[in-house]
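Section 3.1: Structural characterization of target chains.
Under the original work plan, the team committed to producing a structural model for every single-chain target entering the pipeline before any wet-lab resources were allocated. The record below documents one such target. The sequence was received from the expression subgroup and is listed exactly as submitted; it comprises 275 residues.
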Amino acid sequence: MNSIVTQRFIQCHHQLKQENRVRSSRQFAQSLDYLPQSLSEILKGRRDVTIELLRKAVEIYQVNPIFLYTGEGEMFLKPGEDKELRILTIVTDQQNDERILHIPCSAQPEYAQEIGNPVFIQSLPSYSLPSSSNNGPQRSFDISGDHMVPTFFEGDKVVCTFIEPSQWEQSIKNQHVYVVVSKESLLVNRVHNDLKNNKHLTLYSDNSFYEAFNVHVSDIQEVWQVHTHISPFLPARHHHQFPVHEDVKVLRQMIGEQHLMIQNLHKTIEKLVNP
């Protein structure tokens, strides 16, 4: 766990004592089902806070996880704000460092349905990266299909950091790539943020064959910001759209031209019939 997060956790502990919300460090540790001796090691800077300890602090004392991970916002949540926050299930190694959960293509339909099921989430594969981000919980997702060609290809993976729902309006940046988990599916797209005015995100594909579409905020379960791209080695990659898409474009153009010809023919017939 990041030492900066540990320092922010200690700040929250001191503030709770100052406000008399906890009588002592020992009582604070016991309320979190944590050994007082281990908490003492954290407060002395000899040990980093664990993910599980953070989770309990958020749940019991409404510590603001956004403050813990980014240093932004208030130290504690206001009444009602906790309803907007997701408590994510995470997996840690023997050193209590968070591992990156991976959602392969085969698990993505179920992920959208079982997003709040800790048993399912813990069954997913996990791994660590040497240069992994410390900006909050991370997950990685397989790329399926060709919606993001030529930026991503099928078989690529994207590693992402979690964005709290309360931060969607401010933190989701236009033209950046995100994984948007709706109630029905999991989508990897560029995004235009229109939450403030129209309560939806507009999702774009880098492959021009696909049209943009909107996802209403009520249908969004999670948003993950892509920060790392993992690509398997291939001898050659063709950075163009699939031939079938070119064929479809040609057919569309032919149909449009034929439709225009038919309209002109109808107009000619009408003039002949009704001079």
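The radius of gyration is 25 Å.
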